[in-house]
Specification:
This protein is of the alpha+beta class and 70 residues long. Helices cover 30% and strands 20% of the residues.
Length: 70
């Protein structure tokens, strides 16, 4: 079994934004989902673990559902 671990725990302070950079939009989609999509589509990856600050988990899960990620 192959597991991908994605570290997305940064606050993005150098981005001069009030949102963590993983949630900033790139082409209308949060950056984190641009990262996760190829892992979800890869047949050799069986599990993806996303490491986030605890206070961002609920927002991430809600966005993941809207963007069709498991």
């Amino acid at each position: 079994m192959n597991t991908a671990i994605i570290a997305a725990a940064g606050m993005g302070s150098r981005m001069a934004s009030d949102r963590p950079k993983q949630f900033l939009q790139l082409a209308g989609i949060p950056i984190i989902f641009h990262t996760l999509k190829p892992f979800e589509e890869c047949d050799s990856i069986h599990e993806v673990i996303v490491v986030l600050p605890a206070e961002q988990t609920a927002a991430f899960l809600e966005m993941a559902g809207r963007h069709g990620l498991r």
